[in-house]
TrEMBL record:
<dbReference type="Pfam" id="PF07859">
    <property type="entry name" value="Abhydrolase_3"/>
</dbReference>
<dbReference type="GO" id="GO:0016787">
    <property type="term" value="F:hydrolase activity"/>
</dbReference>
<dbReference type="InterPro" id="IPR013094">
    <property type="entry name" value="AB_hydrolase_3"/>
</dbReference>
<feature type="domain" description="Alpha/beta hydrolase fold-3">
    <location>
        <begin position="146"/>
        <end position="356"/>
    </location>
</feature>
<dbReference type="InterPro" id="IPR029058">
    <property type="entry name" value="AB_hydrolase_fold"/>
</dbReference>
<comment type="similarity">
    <text>Belongs to the 'GDXG' lipolytic enzyme family.</text>
</comment>
<keyword id="KW-0378">Hydrolase</keyword>
<feature type="region of interest" description="Disordered">
    <location>
        <begin position="1"/>
        <end position="26"/>
    </location>
</feature>
<dbReference type="InterPro" id="IPR050300">
    <property type="entry name" value="GDXG_lipolytic_enzyme"/>
</dbReference>
<protein>
    <submittedName>
        <fullName>Lipase</fullName>
    </submittedName>
</protein>
<dbReference type="InterPro" id="IPR002168">
    <property type="entry name" value="Lipase_GDXG_HIS_AS"/>
</dbReference>
């Protein structure tokens, strides 16, 4: 297993805490006002010089576990806290939280131009939306393809919230990307998302030629919940190899959730104030698993708890220094390596959970995301 040196970014200021998703959340009217304000302010963040950011923040840098928080992200978090929308979950109302995340994502324009096709993919319970990305100049037949599963705690997120990231991956890694709009909780409890994502991977394999891909060069990947799904899909494909299902060429696990059953030091250190919080994680877990046919110890939910991790695809595992999920991502990388799986593990020390969605704002998120895409390109060029 390889491990990179964390990306170093200049120091910044502390940020505040986030309340329980069920308490004190803004109304729809207030969210509309906040969306308008964030739409005006977020595009300006990238243009603010680092010394000015630190002056605006007005406090000492935040350093935890030897990592110093990126000032660009600190400013974004401070803006959110001041506006009354703290972190990833805007409301305990699922519809409102989904809308808020879509609005936030729309304000952070990637400015990346690629070719796009809107598709439908057959799933276990009907058709799923999907979006196929290619570089503007196209790709030769038999190119690599990344089947991408978006993050959002299995509850929020969609094709649009991760559109900018998929555009960047396609353009800068020079690969096709198939982003999948799998079913979300609480309307569809676990393991519905797993079944959808596995069906999408198998469809991509069967239709590789139409996607300009070689079926032997199809990778799976995702961020957060999507990283969890990519890990599980990789194991399901391994278990079905005797049925002719090829193993993914690579699993891209971007700050993945790998163990719903245990606590870690990073969950305690970063339980509040760094975009993803413990109340958020509890809310996601309850929406995904309450009343489900599986529980937290099932490897369909917690891939780290699988009895056998041998024979899985090579893994590119990426974590963030200020992320509650940091340690379980690291533990999964270690477990894969111990099982003989080739692992490239990288921790980006200065950034928070979901940093890859913030790359258009510059700073540590842009540096870390560029390194991730470069690593992905290198790995896929060898498959």
């Amino acid at each position: 297993m390889t491990k990179s040196v964390p990306v170093g970014i200049p120091p910044t200021a502390p940020v505040g805490t986030v309340a329980d998703p069920g308490a004190g959340r803004p109304s729809r009217r207030k969210l509309a006002t906040l969306n308008a304000v964030s739409g005006a302010l977020l595009p300006l963040v990238k243009r603010i010089p680092e010394p000015v950011k630190r002056k605006l923040l007005g406090r000492r840098a935040v350093t935890i576990d030897g990592n110093t928080l990126d000032p660009t992200l600190a400013l974004v978090l401070a803006m959110q806290r001041a506006s009354g929308v703290n972190g990833l979950v805007a409301s305990d109302d699922v519809v409102v939280s989904r809308e808020q995340l879509r609005n936030l994502s729309a304000k952070i324009d990637s400015g990346v131009t690629v070719g796009i096709r809107e598709l439908t993919v057959p799933g276990p319970e009907g058709q799923m939306r999907a979006r196929h990305y290619t570089p503007v100049d196209g790709l030769p037949a038999g190119s690599p393809l990344l089947v991408f599963f978006h993050g959002g705690g299995f509850v929020v997120g969609d094709l649009d919230t991760h559109d900018g990231l998929c555009r960047l991956i396609s353009r800068d890694a020079g690969v096709g990307v198939l982003s999948v709009d799998y079913r979300l909780a609480p309307e569809h409890k676990a393991p519905a998302a797993v079944h959808d994502c596995y069906a999408a991977y198998r469809w991509a394999v069967d239709n590789a030629a139409a996607l300009g891909a070689d079926p032997r060069r199809i990778a799976v990947g995702g961020d957060s919940a999507g990283g969890n799904l990519a890990a599980v899909v990789s194991r399901l494909a391994r278990d079905d190899r005797d049925q002719g299902v090829p193993l993914p060429a690579l699993q891209l696990l971007l700050y993945p959730a790998t163990n719903f059953a245990g606590d870690t030091r990073s969950k305690l250190l970063f339980s509040e104030g760094f975009f993803l919080t413990k109340p958020h994680m509890d809310w996601f877990r309850d929406n995904y698993l309450s009343g489900a046919a599986v529980d937290v110890s099932d490897p369909l939910i917690s891939p780290l708890l699988a009895d056998d991790l041998t024979g899985l695809p090579p893994a590119l595992v990426l974590t963030a220094g200020f992320d509650p999920l940091r340690d379980e991502g690291h533990h999964y990388a270690e477990a894969l390596a111990a099982a003989g799986v080739p692992v490239d593990y990288r921790e980006y020390g200065s950034v928070v959970h979901a940093f890859a969605n913030f790359f258009p704002l510059g700073g540590g998120s842009a540096v870390a995301t560029a390194d991730m895409v470069s690593a992905l390109k290198a790995h896929l060029s060898r498959c």
